[in-house]
Design brief:
- By secondary structure, the protein is an alpha/beta fold.
- The chain has 2 domains: 52 residues, no CATH class; 185 residues, HAD superfamily/HAD-like (Rossmann fold, 3-Layer(aba) Sandwich), CATH 3.40.50.1000.
- It has 8 helices and 12 strands.
- Strands 9-8-4-12 form a 4-stranded parallel beta sheet.
- A hairpin with a 7-residue loop joins strand 10 and strand 11.
- The longest helix has 13 residues.
- The termini are far apart.
């Protein structure tokens, strides 16, 4: 079994920007990896080689599947927090230090209003994932402040989990189809959602900089609590919410 786990780890190291690994049919027969293949879609077969898309998240916990939980995918910068580098904000909640090839930088971080309440209230209702286009060291330093005990955010995805489209000016793109979750049950929250895939899963929020009267996360919290146990497609519920909010219907702000 240990040999099989090592083999799968090596396959994943061969991944491309589309998270594809190459598996020899001989290994399928030798290791009996049908469970691995059932959890990761086979894209094609060519000359006894399987091309397998590896999901970026492990299978959902059994208890979460049993309770039919949805997955809440949160962006970090300008969605949950705002930060500046080497220049203190007039107001900030904490500072972090990050190393890079040219030295060390200090980031001053301001939390968006209601972020602590949002995470605390939804921790048991949703599988919470943070998916950021930032690098791991920077993101982890901030997330360790937001979730110091590591029992709220189930999974963390970083810049290397984004895809890079062709073109010299292209930005990292988040593709929710690579998560390994049913998109009927995924809510995506990102201030720049229009630049990513699966926009129909996006709950729109404005960009956060320093407005301490901001209530975007409070609105998100109310929405998520209302639909937590709904059997309906999350994308339909998000659209209905957006239409109601646009029309100024009471109870949907």
């Amino acid at each position: 079994m240990k040999e099989l786990e090592t083999k799968i780890t090596n396959w994943k190291k061969e991944e491309t920007k589309w998270r594809v690994v190459v598996v020899q049919m001989a290994d399928v027969q030798k290791y009996g990896i049908m469970k691995f293949l059932s959890e990761n879609p086979v894209l094609g077969l060519d000359d006894n080689i399987l091309y397998v898309q590896v999901h970026m998240l492990p299978p959902m916990a059994k208890s979460d599947r049993k309770s039919n939980k949805k997955t809440l995918v949160l962006d970090l910068d300008e969605t949950l927090v705002h930060s500046t580098v080497n220049k203190p904000l007039k107001r900030h909640d904490f500072a972090i230090q990050c190393r890079h090839p040219d030295g060390t930088s200090i980031y001053y971080v301001l939390k968006r209003p209601w972020v602590d309440l949002l995470l605390d209230e939804l921790r048991n209702l949703y599988e919470i994932v943070v998916f950021t286009a930032s690098n791991k060291e920077y993101a982890d330093a901030i997330l360790n402040k937001l979730d110091p005990h590591g029992n709220i955010i189930r999974h963390r995805l970083y810049r290397d989990s984004c895809i890079q489209l062709p073109g010299p000016k292209s930005k990292p793109v988040k593709d929710l189809s690579t998560l390994g979750r049913n998109l009927r049950k995924v809510i995506f929250v990102d201030d720049s959602y229009r630049h990513h895939c699966q926009q129909e899963n996006a709950f729109p929020v404005r960009r956060f900089l320093d407005d301490m009267n901001d209530t975007e996360l409070l609105s998100l919290l109310g929405f998520c609590k209302r639909i937590a146990n709904s059997e309906s497609d999350a994308r339909t519920l998000i659209l209905s919410h957006a239409i109601s909010r646009h029309n100024g219907c009471p109870g949907w702000n």
